[in-house]
Amino acid sequence: MENKKILIIEDDQFLREFYQELLQSEGFSVDVASDGEIGFQKAHMGGFNLILFDLMLPKKDGLAILRDLKVSPPQTQNGPIVVLTNLGQDAIINQCLNMGAEGYLIKSAMNPDQVLTEVNSYLGLH
Amino acid sequence: MMSDFSIILTAILIFALILELFYMKKTRALEDRNKRLEALKKLDEIMMSSTTNLEEVAQKVTDAIAFILGFEIGVLALIDEKRKVLRRVAMSHTATGVKAQTSLPFPYKQLEIPLDCEENLSIKAIISGSKQVTHDLYEVFVPVLDKNISAEIQKTVNVKTSLIYPVRARGKILGVMIVSISRDENELSAYEKESIEELVNVLGIALDNALLYQDLKETSEQLKIANERLKQLDKLKDEFVSIASHELRTPITAIRSYAWMALHKSDVPLSQKVEKYLVRVFMSSERLINLVNDMLNVSRIEAGRIEINPEPVDLIELTKEIIDEAYYSKSTAKNIQFQLHETKLPKVLADLEKLREVFLNLVGNSLKFTPNDGKISFDFFSDGQVVEVSIKDSGVGIGREDLGRLFQKFGRLDSSYTATASLGGTGLGLYICKSLVELMHGKIWVSSEGLGKGATFYFSLPVATDARLRHIDEYRIKAVGEAKGLEPVAI
To answer: What is the ipTM of this complex?
Structure first.
């Protein structure tokens, strides 16, 4: 699993570190970004097997990251890009899906084991 | 003979003269009457015309009275309740009227008399409710113009008498009509006097109409503004609820996630006490998340953001799905048995997503209040028009006195509080169920034989008959503004 690289774009420190720790404990190689701009730069470099990104982010929101990645595609291709949000049932989620997001996860609706199940399924593991 | 003849001739002449005089008087009277009728007709026209602008009506009416009855000046002044003044709104365009306008030191509409200035005859007419007469224009202009200026104006326009009539409508005095003439009051014929009074009465009605219309216009404009503001507020509230729920969920997610990690990924063994505390932190965080979700759902339902898209739904199939879902959540831990009494059933007309929410809520509820090794059974009944579903549990039951408030917001029962505290109830689930079922033209109710005897929840929905499917749009509900889905129910 060391070869699977995951990028987490999440501004809340506790949640960012939680996802990082959870995924690292499963043996994934995890990179993080705490705002939309850094997130976009890292995603733009590319090479991630999975990108989990929040929608409400400082400097550049999630939808803008998707748009910018469309306009200027990553140097090395990325795996699925998945929305990781607490905005349930908002029109913005559908906009993200139309902009190329693979799916969405509602943070508050999942226990850590469910997060792992979802991550594995997006990575095509299990 | 001659003298006889001349006597007869003289008599005839005298008779003719008398006749002529009588006829003349009669003609005068007829003329007056014609004038009055003409004026009334004119007023009628003004009232019937589509003109509803107050100033315009006032001007037309004032002109009609002055021109047709041949008065030198007609002035209409109305009470301005807000500013506590008598305001001139129209002055006749008669030659003398125009002269009077130019001889005033300022536009006549600025001539405002305070309502408490009893020295002014217009105010006196309003207070007393009776006609006032004066030969001195100062009494009409006080306190705005002084004696000298008033005398000058009177000299310029050359009017002798001013008559001031209160203008009434529906028993209320709206203002005064001032008529100025170059004659003395007693030179006016009875007809002329009657005519003025009659016209002033009609004038009141015309003005009242215009005022009512203006009020209506102002009110509807204010309503429009208020409505716009409400819409803005609604949007702001929506944004607030959306952002607040997002902001609330972030820390709750952290609490829930770290509590879970502490319980499952701790690098030291947990003492019994610590484990119990962590379990409670975890369960409370779940409950808080449910509460946020339910509050979001309630706010969406109440704001009409929910749409109903009806389609034929197979209730048996849906029940099986719900049982599967429930089975893999909590029922296994509690060893609860599900029983489904399958029958041949027509499809119902419902919004699948909303019906699923209702079902999950009801089943979740039964699970919460049914102790370990209990039983939950599903029954169906249809008379061809509606399908009735019942969900019967062997749980704690409900006291008769509590049945009524069960479907109210936070209508949670005191006796069930201990249960909800440990099971994550929000007190909103049944209210949401009732709202959704009713949006889908259904009914929901409950029965219980009492505490400790379990409870049965029922809901009924219309059968998807051919007739109903032909008019399926009657069952459709469009969302107000942007349609929102419902937050998932956790069971």
So the answer is: 0.88
